[in-house]
Model the fold of this input.
Amino acid sequence: MPAGAQAEWKPLRSVLVHEPGIEVFFALLSPRSHLYERFFERGEAVREHRELCETLMRGYGVRVHRLREVLESSAKDDPRLQSDLVALAERRLSRRCEGDACALPPRIRRELEDPVPLTEADTGHLLDIILLDPTLVLDPAGVYTEIRRPMCNLYFMRDQQAATDLGIVQGRMQSAVRQAEIELCGLALDVLGTDPVHRVIDGHFEGGDFIPAGDFALIGVGPRTDMAGAMELLAQALSFEEVAIVRQPCHPLVRGYDPMVSMHLDTYLNFASECVAVANPVLLRAAGVDIFHCRTGGYEKADMGTTLDRYLEEKGFEVVEITTLEQLCYATNFLCVKNGVCLAPDTHRIAPLVIERLRERVAREPGRYDRLLDQAAHDLAELRAEAEFFPHKKEIYSHGLEMVPLRLTNATGGYGGAHCMTCTIGRY
Done:
């Protein structure tokens, strides 16, 4: 199938997704340490994710490929794929002995562990091992199992790769905990016939930091995507006339640097149509931009930089401005399905949860998030008084946009919305 995307507003044809599974349970035992924003109900998150997929398929004719289904159905008739899954599962399954058990002869230890040969395991069993990263621990009392680094962030399928004008680019995660996701997604992409045009090797790159926009593209750099990763894309994976490298801004309402407040570029900016962007103006003004032009020998940096708000104005985009609270509720993490039509989080349902989480942060770190909480609380009062929660805003209607609200109250608790939950394969 054709792979790649020239612009975020081109018709969405196919996506790869992963439904939140048992791996999410382990992250919910300690959400913050697993890069989640908050605790949420896993069963409800699954239902919300299914509603997102159903809306894409039935409402807009998008082909939705589910990662588990793609791999399980294909491995039955593809010995090479099954072998690749066995190899990945073997790397994710480890063994350890403790205490007096370590003195037992290796043969006895293996008999006590009684391991199932992975070559005899079904594909579903292999995928569970890959998702959960288990360790068999042998101690004097017997054998027990530990779960080490489950792929609890895998349902945010945009992070591992991006669709560019040349095709799919596989990234490289900053977090070592998430690096194995790249290989698993790569196996599914291979099954779908979408060989990546490039795999990032030297730098770091995550798909939420990339937005194609017609004759130009934006790459956000910060804690997830670094400059080395961005330069690797310029050298190997893009042919846009112009690329803007956007430096992640420090949030002016947070004391010190908190990279999670504007984790990826798409958490404070997105395109709803070929002429309209949705963004938090505070962060647009704070984000610096370096411009690169495509030349015969590659991309050349322009002499002068600018700020993101000025850059978008120069490109002729009108900006629907959102409040700080709406931005924290993933308002810009909507998914454009075609020019002017998007699936968007219903932020009024998420807002009370975000406010509660901010109060917890203020109590835990006095003085750091106080101004952010004050602004969010002020925004909440005004938005309620005006009944103007995104996407139900006058500016949305005045620009002729169709924003379909989705209930993603729980699924966004992992730190992302509909945009982050979908890996675009093709837009054309």
Remarks:
- The chain has two domains: 4-65+152-427, 72-147.
